[in-house]
Write a structure and sequence with these properties.
Blueprint lengths: L15 E5 L4 H12 L3 E6 L2 H9 L5 E5 L5 H9 L4 E6 L17 H17 L3 E8 L23 H25 L5 E5 L16 H11 L4 H4 L1 H8 L7 E4 L9 E3 L9 H14 L4
Parallel strand pairs: 1-2, 1-4, 2-3, 4-5, 5-6, 6-7
Antiparallel strand pairs: 7-8
Helix pairs in contact: 3-4, 4-5, 5-9
Length: 287
């Protein structure tokens, strides 16, 4: 597993794979590799014009469809048009933004990274045949799920703690989804992945001096998007452990080839995960 690369991707001919946020960065690298392996790839993106330009450079069968994870009406419209999908890759995300709110009033990072994908997955799950891959981050370790105030309405906003909460929510969702699928005897599995430290556009939208700092970090330390996408590609196509978490196998999980990744003890808290699931269902209008 330690030397796994895109050369090891199994043939994906005949499979349909949805990649959210596939118009740039990790999502584009993921979609491109899957397209090259023969999959029909649906690029689910808010910026469809940009996605069309990215898709035009892919060799296989691709489709671009509009999906704004910060708008639950958009999520519902997208899922209404999907008949069948083998793999859903919950990749899209925003990071360290100033305080903003989604169309439904959620804090933007929690609303986009977690709630948008939570709704998307649950609305599509009866049409998924193989697996759901949810992309988290090493930043889940700084996160804490505040069930009383997940949308930062009653406390001072901290952009990085909000990001950490959203990525911890992603990981807890992936683990809880696997428990529920297994409990139902479903053949569908849930897997999580993280890219380590990868240079992408995600790190250039803090609208602060931190953009310049992260640009320097990208230049000096980060691996490229294609390398950062490998854990997601492994999780989406390889013979994986259901409910596992995959990431780079190098120092601190920041670089390297795909391997099993460790997670913070908070990510394994089943009681909080169940409560987060129930809260997410309520916020997304799924109950």
């Amino acid at each position: 597993m330690s030397k796994w690369s895109t050369a090891d991707l199994p043939d994906q001919t005949g499979r349909t794979i949805i990649v959210t946020g596939a118009n740039s960065g990790l999502g584009a690298a993921t979609a491109r590799a899957l397209s090259e392996a023969g999959a029909r790839v649906i690029l689910a993106c808010r910026d469809t014009a940009k996605a069309e330009r990215v898709a035009a450079g892919m060799p296989g069968r691709t489709e671009v469809r509009q999906l704004d994870l910060a708008n639950l009406n958009s999520v519902r419209s997208f899922t209404d048009e999907i008949e069948r999908v083998d793999v859903l890759i919950n990749n899209a995300g925003v990071m360290a933004l100033p305080l903003r709110r989604t169309a439904d009033g959620f804090e933007m990072q929690f609303g986009t990274n977690h709630l948008g994908h939570f709704a998307l997955t649950n609305l599509l799950l009866d049409r998924v045949t193989d697996r759901v891959v949810t992309v988290s981050s090493v930043a889940h370790r700084i996160g804490k799920i505040n069930l009383a105030d997940p949308n930062w309405e009653q406390r001072g906003y901290d952009r990085w703690l909000a990001y950490g909460q959203s990525k911890l929510a992603n990981l807890m969702f992936a683990y809880e989804l696997q428990r529920r699928l297994a409990g139902e005897g479903s053949a569908v599995i849930s897997v999580a992945a993280h890219p380590g430290y990868a240079a992408t556009e995600l790190m250039s939208h803090t609208e602060s001096v931190q953009d310049a700092i992260m640009w320097l970090g990208n230049r000096a330390f980060a691996q490229n998007a294609a390398q950062g996408a490998l854990p997601t590609l492994f999780a989406a196509t390889a013979d994986v452990v259901p409910g596992a978490f995959y990431g780079p196998d190098g120092f601190l999980g920041l670089r390297g080839n795909p391997g099993l990744a460790g997670s913070a003890p908070t990510a394994r808290d089943r009681e909080v995960a169940a409560e987060l699931w129930e809260l997410s269902e309520k916020l997304c209008g799924l109950i």
